[in-house]
Hints:
Chain A is an alpha/beta fold. Chain A is about 45% helix and about 15% strand.
Amino acid sequence: MAVTVADVARYAGVSTASVSRALSGADGVGETVRARVIAAAQALGYQPNDVARSLRTTRTQTVGLIIPDVVNPFFGELASAIEEAAHQYGYSVILCNANEQTERQDRYLELMLARRVEGLLLTPVLGESPALHAAARQGVPMVFVDRAVPSMEVAVVRADGRPAISKLVEHLVGLGHERIAVIAGPRQSPTGHERLTAFRTAMRAHSLRLPRELVRVGDFQMDSGRRAAAQLLDLDEPPTAVFAVDDLMTLGAVQEIRRRGLRIGTDVAVAGFDDPPWFQLMEPPLTTVSQPVSRMGTLAVETLVEAIGTGSARSHLLDCDLVIRDSCGEAAIPRGAGRSSGT
Amino acid sequence: MAVTVADVARYAGVSTASVSRALSGADGVGETVRARVIAAAQALGYQPNDVARSLRTTRTQTVGLIIPDVVNPFFGELASAIEEAAHQYGYSVILCNANEQTERQDRYLELMLARRVEGLLLTPVLGESPALHAAARQGVPMVFVDRAVPSMEVAVVRADGRPAISKLVEHLVGLGHERIAVIAGPRQSPTGHERLTAFRTAMRAHSLRLPRELVRVGDFQMDSGRRAAAQLLDLDEPPTAVFAVDDLMTLGAVQEIRRRGLRIGTDVAVAGFDDPPWFQLMEPPLTTVSQPVSRMGTLAVETLVEAIGTGSARSHLLDCDLVIRDSCGEAAIPRGAGRSSGT
DNA sequence: CTGAAAGCGCTTACAG
DNA sequence: CTGAAAGCGCTTACAG
């Protein structure tokens, strides 16, 4: 655990400079010397020390990844895609889970800066983050994934849910739904806001009312989806369809609906967001707005690599898909207004 | 991005030694000097360089985590728990996804050693891994999670599925099942082997036959679960119950059963392994053997920290729970042998 | 092609 | 309490 270039040099009878050159594969070193060095390294069991190299070269080959909630399958898949792509470009990734807390995000940001990551990939948590602004000011290459911070000029890679949401509403209306509720994200969340606004716009386009009581605010966690669904179901005139804007809240809603003995798709329609593998395995399979998660991850890395290389990078807005399955009912909706396309 | 201790020292009018002491909070530095240093650091926007510090102290405050498949929810949750616990102890984690490939595991192992991680947490992939043995020989503190390598004397933190599997078989038998199939893990997998053996033993204890055709080998991935279920269902005399030994294969089996229009719990019973959040949301909710995943993660980190500190650590074997829900049917099993406890 | 030497940014004995 | 100096393990101009 302690053999250094100096040891190898001594053993091979050459200078440390030659050792370095030979081992790094650089040219400008004779074949015989190279062979001797390699043999010596082998014999001594030499293990390069990247921290020394990093100090000297100021390259760490590491990028930082800060995710707000690794347990959320969406972010899990995202992290996985990012890890994969990063390695493709020769970067290791230091992973931190901000857990949706600004203080944790800031602490990790400091930590990553101190470790001299070459770039930063993050899904910023909501709220003011001094460390984030500091990092940006310092000029560390960085790109946001999935969430933008409007006040910051940082490239962002995310998916635009609007067209798909509009299609979803059309789908629901086609099935005879008029009283459609939404379980939205936190008010301050740009993503949540965008989805809610898109939903509102689509409802208006179909001349459908969206009373206050049908708009519920959650926090992207399962429990808030459950609570929101409960409130919705307790209404004097409950909605015939519920649209939740992320996977976890969708799950919560499904759970609450089930708990009450209601059947999804017939008693109440459910549409979700994101598309973890088991959505299609639910009974009935869930209709949902799907984001190109792993594409986002790959693209985010590519964008970051570009930022590291050129000092600047462009944002990318991907498309979402509406995946129609059976959870919005395909036939008899109780209050069907004759518009149903079902049998 | 380039202010160093030397700059701070100059600005504060003291030596770099004092700067280092003041900033690290060490004692042996006067209050006035400390205050001046802190002010100077602040004024200059000093950002400590951990790679230099690491080189000097030979401490990197980093541990490596190698997971065989981050997309698998079991490992996702495990990684999340590990990341959390590691930070609690002041360690950052470098995450690598071996994707069940020895070569990738070995490459990442080299990389982590070069980066001088202070410890290694990994779920070893199957197959010979020269780098793993090399690392062990070198004495890098390490602990295995979830999977042991019988030939290596490395502490392992995992859960013992045997008692829960025995209870599961009892549960199935109580429900009238006799023809019970198993979708096992790869033959070389100790974990898979343990679960299969436990299942065999339990079957024998109930004097139940387990013909070859009812034992199917998968690879812990969803697709293999699907294929295994298909083969099982195609049998002249298909099983009345299927037990899959991980979450992904369980999902695959569920999907195949559904695809054929069969109802889980009534047409065919399904029992799974692991307990991702949506198992309880399936229709019917899935009966499963649940591992204490996040406990495993935390304990693995504690064990590693101990290994780093003392140079040795003990293995830990946790218990699994049998979570009984409705997927094994609670009533009428077609071929019920009169043993059914249902109504 | 090869080597002597400096230096990356810290921390830590060692003196005083 | 404070500083001068060495050194962690590399790489890279700079000479030759």
